[in-house]
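stage 2 :: seqdesign
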C-alpha cells in the first residue's frame, strides 16, 4: 500500500512498534523522501495536534 500512496504523491508516516518490522520497512523505504518511519506505539505517539501523546489524534 505504501508504494501506491507514494506514487500518487502522498507523504506517509509509518508508525511500527515491532523493531524487526521497523528495520524491514527502513530497508525497503529508507531512501524514499516521502516516507517517514517511526518505531513507536501508534496509540501513544505525540502528534502536532496531541503533543503529549496521551491519546489517539488524527492529523489531516
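stage 2 :: out
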Amino acid at each position: 500500500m505504501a508504494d501506491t500512496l507514494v506514487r500518487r504523491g502522498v507523504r506517509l508516516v509509518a508508525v511500527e512498534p515491532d523493531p524487526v518490522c521497523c528495520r524491514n520497512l527502513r530497508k525497503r523505504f529508507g531512501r524514499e523522501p516521502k516516507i517517514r518511519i517511526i518505531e513507536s506505539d501508534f496509540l501513544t505517539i505525540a502528534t502536532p495536534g496531541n503533543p503529549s501523546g496521551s491519546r489517539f489524534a488524527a492529523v489531516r
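stage 3 :: structure notes
- The radius of gyration is 12 Å.
- The chain has a mean pLDDT of 81.
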